[in-house]
Amino acid sequence: MKYLEVRHLRLSQVKAVDIPALFNQNNIPYNSIDVINWHAFPYCPKVEFAIAHTGDTILLHYRVEEDGVRAVAGEDLGNVWEDSCCEFFASPDADGSYYNLESNCIGTILLCNGKGREERMQAPLSALKKIDRWASLGRKVIGLDEKAHQWELSLVIPVSAFFRHKISNLSGLIIHGNFYKCGDKTAHPHFLSWNPIDIPSPDFHRPDFFGEIKFL
């Protein structure tokens, strides 16, 4: 199981568009999402993420290089996993439930909570609206573009986004989670993870393969 420490940046307000420069100024390290768990899907775009927090928000930045992009889902709670998509799954306590926060390359978000793949509760729109997003490709639907792209995505995720838990301060919190890159209907379907998933068929909804994440 991989282990990740999340630094505390003592800032009152951060906008998603400012995260890349902020992380550069503060030397926030990047981590690769490069584990090919299922060799039937060997394509491996270059993907890395960096994460920090401000106490009451999670700051997340993805950097991706891939051979073509897909962005069809333009409304939150849509099928973003079919697009060029980065995902953060997180289980904040021992109750057995976890959140799947999935975002395509234009910042469209799917956020749900539950104890398994078939038991998901969608986030209320009020919670989704509080997640600030910046996408280097813009926020408009692209469709399928088979040209090579380098793209970035930044998210500012308030603790209130964990809508079935009451988290007031992230400092000192230890959670379990995983980070993914997928694209079910892209020109090159792929299913990459940060922490390995040792099962025969593609499935990201496996909290038994989450890594440990400590918020400093």
From TrEMBL:
SUPFAM superfamilies: CBD9-like. One of its GO terms (biological process) is carbohydrate catabolic process. Residues 19-215 form the Carbohydrate-binding domain. One of its GO terms (molecular function) is hydrolase activity, hydrolyzing O-glycosyl compounds. It comes from the Bacteria. InterPro entries: Carb-bd_dom_fam9. CDD domains: CBM9_like_3 (cd09620). This is Carbohydrate-binding domain-containing protein. It comes from Prevotella histicola F0411. The lineage of its organism: Bacteria, Pseudomonadati, Bacteroidota, Bacteroidia, Bacteroidales.
